[in-house]
Specification:
Two copies of one chain form a homodimer. Chain A is an alpha+beta fold. The first copy, chain A, folds into two domains: 115 residues, Immunoglobulins (Immunoglobulin-like), CATH 2.60.40.10; 247 residues, Rossmann fold. Chain A has nine helices and 21 strands. Chain A has an eight-stranded mixed sheet with strand order 14-15-17-16-18-19-20-21, with helices on both faces. In chain A, helix 2 runs parallel beside helix 9. The termini of chain A are far apart.
């Protein structure tokens, strides 16, 4: 802030950066940068003495860095939403990961990510509570003639009472992501550990595998064929899980949920397999209308939970897009209609977040508390 | 090769690159570069139109890349040893990961790695055989007041017969690496899956946690205090594993092994805890001498297996360093002396490899076939 001679305050907005930056929780061990301040600004730093032009690229905006005498470039972004964001650096025209950050698979690449502390970060904090395991399994898929990978969360006491069986949630990532997203970015295992420790959710198994979505050309979702993935999930992975884990393998104890593209997959697969799934979660994407309900057989008898959620900023932008109705109808109105028809349907809005992981962490947190309770 | 007018062949060695490059198996999904050819050369490519100077940095040598008209830089290394290697790119003085490769934790950073096909890669190939799981566990450590992470390999049939109990191997990474190394770079789980499928190894559990080695200043190993890690491993992790997994928890069924710095840790911890460990594996680092044996109580009665290994190139370089004897003695002579004293001791040399992961994959492959058989 500069106090001018005539008493008028002149405060150019771009320069009022609060200087309380701290290393991010997603930094590599021992790395000071990237940093985040209390406004949610991201500050990066990299040594590139011979470079001409270095930029930070986050949330679709590029910010120029400034070089000091020792060849170190530094700069920061505007304030970001709470939660997790992908980013990258540009060095003389090359897009590269920041060597200071941990790496995450999203936007169809392993690259930098950063955590902006959130007011509700306690829901996914690493605490001294009993922890479940996240296990990598490798299963043979006949339909694709390949050994495929999934991650399986088993709740804290899974290995204590070997007679106990658990319900199962199949949980899908979004377009450009893979089976690592829900634990690395989504912190699904920590959300469940904390909910179970507080007695807020029933213990259940979560299975996360690759949704085969990245072969889809962007914009070509209308032509997406669910069949190949449905075969892997329903005919190959579910029997493998029911053989190798202590599951309750009947329809009342099997759920599916997904985010964005994964919510479309969830809707398509569950609506065609209502004899196999009873609980449905749709985050930031699909919703279920009364038209869908009426087209299905015995939907009201078979489906015990429909959960639909969005980020608050997604809802805002929908209001300006009346064409939204053409793509499955308004999700809130759809869900209200289900409720009015006596279906156990819930609509959740994540405050002040967009199409991003903080919306989906909160969605899982809400959804998990409703799951397998009917 | 250029045939000159007078019939003399002129073949500058640096230019005889065999043009049979293929994308590496460690590339990110859908990425063409980096590539490897049949000589083991690594070719990288990156778009950096404004850059002045781009280099590939692998096995401690930097290779200049060449820019084409569209701003894409390309270049390749000299032939590399079979197996896994860390590398990075330099763009105008900035050291960054290659955006085309997967990332691995080593050299104290998450960064690029590349796989050079090996003549014996079948031992760690992903095959359609029964696969074990690799589970991330989180356990509270009172001595460090932190929630710590380990990865646990359980063999293929672990979840089939819930009455069966298994021996356990505690397996340590090297300096600059962490608990992800043995599965990501070492492919320990695939080596075990294949050995078990062929009936060559007894099924056992493997536990991999962080050896707390990266706080050591390079060159300061003589001052290394094993106590903090020994407390975490012996007093905290072992009881956690024996509570949460179906282990055979007596001394005859517990082993420890490690590579490089991890072999030093293994020697220090097992020699002080012979009531807890019966099988010992030391890869590319420590060995056990008759002096060590004589200082310990009941070594010959308690220790059922001592396995010591090195890369062939490590053995070569030792011959030129007679001072080696000061650091615990010649490892082959030490191991021969143990054999002569009636101890079940084995010395293995990995052909044509150095202080690198291919030596350690082969060491595990050999060691696992000897484990828990006495």
């Amino acid at each position: 802030m500069i106090l001018l001679f005539n008493g008028i305050c002149f405060a150019p907005k771009a320069q009022t950066v609060v200087e309380d930056f701290k290393p991010s929780s997603t930094n590599q061990p021992g790395k000071d940068y990237p940093m985040v301040n209390s406004e949610g600004r991201v500050r990066v730093q990299i040594k590139a003495p011979e470079a001409q032009h270095v930029q930070l690229d986050i949330s679709a905006v590029k910010y120029d860095l400034v070089k000091d005498a020792s060849g170190i470039w530094t700069g920061e972004s505007n304030p970001q939403d709470e939660g997790f964001h992908y980013y990258q650096l540009w060095i003389d025209g090359a897009a590269v990961p920041d060597p200071g950050s941990l790496y995450f698979y999203g936007a169809m690449r392993w690259g930098s990510g950063i955590e902006i502390p959130a007011h509700d970060q306690d829901i996914y904090a690493l605490k001294n509570v009993p922890h479940g395991q996240v296990c990598q399994i490798l299963f043979f898929s006949k339909s694709t003639n390949s050994v495929r990978r999934a991650f399986v969360y088993t709740p804290p006491d899974y290995d204590k009472d070997l007679n106990k069986q658990y319900p199962v949630l199949y949980l899908q990532h979004g377009f450009g992501e893979d089976e690592t997203g829900w634990t690395n970015q989504g912190k699904a295992n920590l959300i469940m550990d904390n909910l179970i420790a507080e007695g807020k959710a029933k213990p259940f198994i979560i299975v996360m595998t690759y949704g085969m979505t990245n072969d889809i050309k962007v914009g070509g979702l209308r032509d997406f064929d669910i069949k190949p993935f449905q075969t892997v999930l329903v005919d190959e992975l579910i029997p493998f899980i029911d053989t190798n884990f202590r599951t309750l393998s009947d329809q009342p104890h099997r759920a599916m949920a997904g985010l964005s593209m994964g919510s479309m997959e969830t809707k398509m697969i569950t609506m065609e397999n209502l004899d196999k799934f009873s609980n449905i979660g749709l985050f930031s994407g699909a919703s279920i209308s009364m038209d869908d309900v009426n087209k299905a057989t015995d939907f009201k008898q078979k489906v015990k939970l429909v959960f639909v959620s969005f980020g608050g900023r997604e809802i805002e932008s929908m209001k300006n897009r009346p064409s939204r109705g053409a793509f499955g109808g308004d999700p809130k109105e759809n869900t209200e209609a289900l409720k009015n028809a006596g279906i156990n349907a819930h609509f959740y809005v994540s405050p002040n977040t967009a199409h991003e992981w903080q919306s989906w962490r909160r969605s899982l947190y809400e959804f998990a508390q409703l799951l397998f309770k009917n």
